[in-house]
Design goal:
The chain has 349 residues and is mainly beta. Helices cover 12% and strands 38% of the residues.
């Protein structure tokens, strides 16, 4: 009997190996990132379902949010929409169209990063799904047109037919639900009518947001800050600088002027209201000087000529209303992810 068991075991080993290799998504073609550092997150491809037909309601009709829950806001033209962390924690990608723009809201709960991606690539419209793979603990979406894999924080295709292709990004501003209601009480917010049954009031990752532990390895573990400290990162010329919320403490909005990689920047936000956002100060060839506005949300900035700008950098009062400040790629994420993707990230002092 023992010999028979051993024989069965010996026969089954190559069969198991062959099955794993055949279905191993990491072995599919060349990668821009080290393939041995791409990990299977567990649920498998589309095991975390994207939201492909999002439903919306006005803020006063949303009953699943607490004041300190987070929401990602996007503005396209005159339309503002909100995508909540309680929904994104369970789905990670929302494929939407905002004011005619095909957009994917990509969010990685493990790195705390939310970035807007244009869904038109090389002239073809696509949708994105969750591949189930991770690099540096960060989401790897795949596009359904070419089945290529993309790195969220690198904002480019890292495997497949579209390898090396960059993605066009759009600014998402992260804030608390209380701040959202103060800014945009009448704007549309995603509902829990997603087509799947999830416990949206329960965070799916336990104590992950506050612990100093990681679920998956990272290439570089930069210990200058707590791994899960939320910071605003700004990316210019492939380099990054991080701004801490503690620099924006107090009841009022705070403003910081900085220069990074030759760009004059203004960073504005509030630890209490839980948002930070960065803009370039140069507009139409002139470097503007800003003052921060108090108690006028969503207006947050006023330039030297009295023009006022909202949280998306759009001029909403003054001359040439609608002009918008340029935005370098910037978004909030856990500190460890910035250290892993952008080594030697500068910490603003």
């Amino acid at each position: 009997m023992k010999s028979l068991k051993n024989l069965i075991l010996l026969i089954s080993i190559p069969l198991i190996f062959s099955y794993c290799k055949k279905d191993d998504p990491v072995s599919n073609g060349d990668w821009l990132i080290p393939s041995n550092e791409v990990f299977d997150g567990g649920p498998g491809k589309d095991g975390i379902p994207s939201v492909d037909n999002p439903q919306f309601a006005s803020s006063d009709a949303i009953d699943y949010m607490n004041d300190d829950d987070l929401i990602l806001a996007i503005q396209v033209g005159d339309e503002v929409r909100g995508y909540t962390h309680p929904v994104l924690d369970w789905h990670e990608i929302v494929n939407d169209e905002v004011n005619g723009l095909p957009i994917a809201i990509t969010y990685c709960p493990l790195t705390g990063t939310g970035i807007g991606w244009e869904r038109t690539i090389n002239g073809k419209e696509t949708t994105f799904g969750v591949s189930g793979l991770l690099y540096n603990s960060n989401l790897i979406p795949y596009d359904r047109e070419s089945d290529s894999n993309w790195s969220q924080m690198a904002n480019e295709c890292v495997n497949g037919d579209l390898i090396n292709t960059p993605i066009n990004t759009y600014l998402l501003v992260e804030m608390s639900w209380a701040t959202w209601k103060e800014m945009y009480p009448d704007a549309d917010v995603i509902t829990t009518n997603t087509g799947t049954n999830r416990t949206y009031g329960n965070y799916p990752y336990g104590s992950y947001r506050t612990s100093n532990s990681l679920n998956f390895p990272v290439d570089i573990d930069d210990d200058r800050l707590h791994r899960k400290e939320r910071v605003l990162g700004v990316i210019i010329n492939g380099k990054a600088v991080a701004y801490q919320f503690e620099k924006f403490s107090g009841d009022n909005l705070q403003l910081v002027n900085d220069n990074f990689e030759g760009k004059d920047l203004v960073i504005v936000g509030s630890e209490e209201k839980n948002f930070l956002v960065a803009f370039e100060r140069e507009l139409d060839g002139t470097v503007l000087t800003f003052d921060v506005l108090q108690n006028e949300l969503p207006a947050i900035l006023e330039d030297q000529d009295g023009n006022k700008y909202d949280i998306f950098g759009k001029r909403i009062e003054g001359v040439d209303i609608g002009k918008t400040l340029a935005t370098p790629t910037n978004y909030i994420g856990y500190w460890f992810s910035w250290g892993a993707f952008y080594p030697d990230t500068k910490i603003y002092e």
